[in-house]
Design brief:
- The chain is an alpha/beta fold and 293 residues long.
- It is 33% helix and 18% strand.
- The chain contains 10 helices and 10 strands.
- It has helices spanning 37-52, 67-78, 95-102, 112-115, 118-124, 140-147, 169-177, 196-201, 228-241, 250-262, and strands at 10-12, 21-27, 57-62, 82-88, 106-110, 131-132, 160-165, 183-188, 213-215, 270-276.
- Helix 2 (67-78) packs parallel to helix 3 and helix 6 (140-147) crosses helix 7 (169-177).
- The radius of gyration is 18 Å and the shape is globular.
- 44% of the residues are buried.
- Bound molecules: pyridoxal-5'-phosphate.
- Pyridoxal-5'-phosphate is lined by residues 36, 38-39, 67, 136, 164-171, 249-250, 277-279.
- Pyridoxal-5'-phosphate (PLP) is lined by residues 36, 38-39, 67, 136, 164-171, 249-250, 277-279.
């Protein structure tokens, strides 16, 4: 079996907590060595819809190291669907893209300029009858899929649920899936992405509007930026807790969580659940030997 949600565990992280704060992580990265956990959850309902509409080809957009692209290729293969990836940049090659191709995805490279106008690209292929998914899986189906992350394990005892936020689809899903007593916090991995709350709210029903908080202080320079300090943190976290993280999302998430705990940001007593959303293949862009895991 390609994906196995039974492999997901709740791992306690004693070195992050203190006498007032218990810290655990939901290891959705264990679903699959390459496919990022949250992407699998976000895609599941889109693919069901594609099948319901009898579209047997699914198309989407992404960069050369996109977790979304490789997850889409793998999920389509598993569902017997064809996949097409529109990749930003004219001549890029990466382990991620080779993996996507090996999983049967057809790649179309488009210039960075053309990539800005996705509707134009979609228009050019409008007569193909493909099922289109937005970059990163943004959308209501994505949020509904992400809400099911909280059903894999009993998460009712946690006071706070914390995740990394790119498009905010997973954050919306967790806000949907959390109960009233739980606070849902998203750590933005993009710099100054202050439209994030609006993006999340657009996926939520009226009663869940603003049922989450976003924090913008832990982007480390911007999307996929990874200063030495972050790499050192990743190695240090791994030695403390045997917890592998990636440079784009989860390293910033865990760093932020630890920092916020130290600042006593979370109302005590707190029982935190940090969502390890996977995405370790993003580390393949690093110099070999940078990481100890
Ligand atoms: C895509 C991704 C995210 C961000 O999810 P959004 O729903 O776009 O906010 C977080 N973590 C990992 C590992 C991802 O691959």
């Amino acid at each position: 079996m390609l994906f196995d949600t039974n492999k997901i565990i709740v791992q306690e992280l004693p070195s992050l907590g203190n006498e007032h704060t218990k810290v655990s992580t939901l290891r959705t990265d264990l679903i699959h060595p390459i496919v990022s956990g949250n992407k699998w959850f976000k895609l599941r309902f889109y693919l069901e819809e594609a099948k319901r509409l009898k579209c047997n080809t699914v198309a989407s957009f992404g960069g050369a190291y996109s977790n979304h692209i490789v997850a889409l290729a793998a999920s389509c293969k598993l569902n017997g669907l064809s996949s097409i990836g529109f990749i930003r940049g004219e001549s890029c090659n990466s382990p991620t893209l080779r993996e996507a191709e090996a999983l049967g995805m057809k790649l179309h490279f488009i210039s960075r300029e053309a990539y800005k106008y996705k509707e134009v690209v979609m228009g050019e292929f409008a007569n193909k009858g493909w099922f289109w998914i937005k970059e990163g899986g943004y959308g209501i189906n994505g949020a509904l899929g992400a809400a099911s992350i909280l059903l894999v394990k009993n998460c009712s005892a946690f006071t706070h649920i914390i995740c990394a936020a790119g498009t905010g689809t997973m954050l919306a899903g967790l806000a949907l899936g959390a109960n009233e007593n739980q606070s849902v916090v998203g750590i933005s991995v993009l710099k100054n992405n202050f439209g994030l709350n609006e993006m999340v709210n657009a996926l939520l029903p009226p009663e869940k509007i603003n049922a989450f908080t976003t924090i913008h202080d832990y982007h480390f320079g911007g999307y996929a930026k990874h200063p030495t300090k972050l790499i050192e943190y990743m190695n240090q976290l791994y030695s403390r807790e045997q917890l592998p993280t990636d440079i784009v999302y989860t390293s910033k998430l865990f760093y932020a969580s630890e920092d916020l705990i130290q600042q006593q940001y979370f109302k005590r007593p707190a029982n935190l659940l940090i969502i390890h959303s996977g995405g370790l293949q993003g580390n393949r862009s690093l110099e070999p030997g940078s990481l100890i895991f």
